[in-house]
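#onboarding

Welcome to the new folks! Below is a worked example of what a typical request in this channel looks like: someone posts a single protein sequence, and someone else replies with the predicted structure as tokens. Don't worry about understanding the tokens yet, we'll cover that in week two.

Example request:
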Amino acid sequence: MALQISALQDRLRRLAAYVEPAAARLATRRAELWLAFCLTAFFMVAGGLSFRAALVGFAIVAVWAALIADDKRPSLRTTDLGKSPAGGDRLWRVMVDAVPEPAVVLDGSGQIVHANRLAEELFGTRRRGGHIASMTRDPELLAAVDEALDTRQLREVELHKRVPVERRLLATLAPLDRPRAGADPSLLISFRDLTEQDRLARMRADFVANASHELRTPLASLRGFVETLQGAAKNDPEARERFLKVMSEQSERMSRLVDDLLSLSRVEMREHLPLAQNVDLNDVVSHVIQTLQPLAAGAGTTIEFRRLHGPATLRGDRDELVQVFQNLVQNAIKYGKSGGRIEVAVAHAEAAAGRPARFIVSVTDEGPGIAPQHLPRLTERFYRVNVLASRERGGTGLGLAIVKHILNRHRGELNVTSTVGQGSTFAVVLPALPEQSINT
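Example response:
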């Protein structure tokens, strides 16, 4: 028992030898920890930083303050942040550099004390020591800087940049300390880019408008036919048969549209997920062609398949790749030459010019072709080269949009070449497995 008590006392003494210096270092770094806490709280409130990320960041700073010794520097008071030695000065600069948004620190006279890398990329070459006007001449921002320095109140202002590209930014100005002369950090400005947010909002609005329009048309047709059957054509067998056929077609069109909308939504939700399967493109394309042979036979179209001699294995999702090639081959059948030929080929391209080895699956038809001005927009939602022809053939305008999102997940691309009057080729390019050796 005495030995156990002695061992426990020895462990406690060793633990105290570590804890006491760490506590002393934390006590001497109260100012840095307080500044780190203020910056973390600011980016949680104004910058949208998650609580977990803020907690981890502050914990890292606290561990650094507790473990790194710096016995030669005096303790800092909160009011002496601008006059701190190199250690304290470096701490807040590191914090600003770690901010996941463009951030600039000004002194009490509006001079730039520090700017992180993202701010340098946004506004050009860093001009440390110059006035904020040397970085941006936006009058609203300059006025907000003067007001924030005078009133010591949090300010927000929107900026609109039109060069080199149009962007909308939200600048948040947060006072750090009482303004004084010299290079003391007095104002932190962070910039949040709202351009992507605006673009997504416009895309959602366009998507809702297009989807509602596409659904409203068949619904209006169905309602009109129902009213006619209930009224004037109530006792007309021929009209009833004709109207019921059209109603069936319209209901099928709505069903296809809803199916494609749900499919597009699922694909977008899975776009960020990693790929875990090894898939052979020869088997995938062969399965798609066998499935669509009855449809091709009904259109009098012949499908020729040239498979790759050897494995065509890549990392991917089999079901999604099946959907890609189903959409492309179905389009070739629908919009290709009636009684014509469709060629589907799987090829391998060796690594060259900095690009890795890749597979190319091409679908070529003998249809009327696509004019050049339409090619860049083919993968947009609800975009159609010929609206009437697309609807007559059961198209929803979402097939190639689904293809684009699936290929984004597979780090692939879709290349389209077409000549009016001669046909079109849709080529899917997918990266091969790095370790794979293929004999073509």
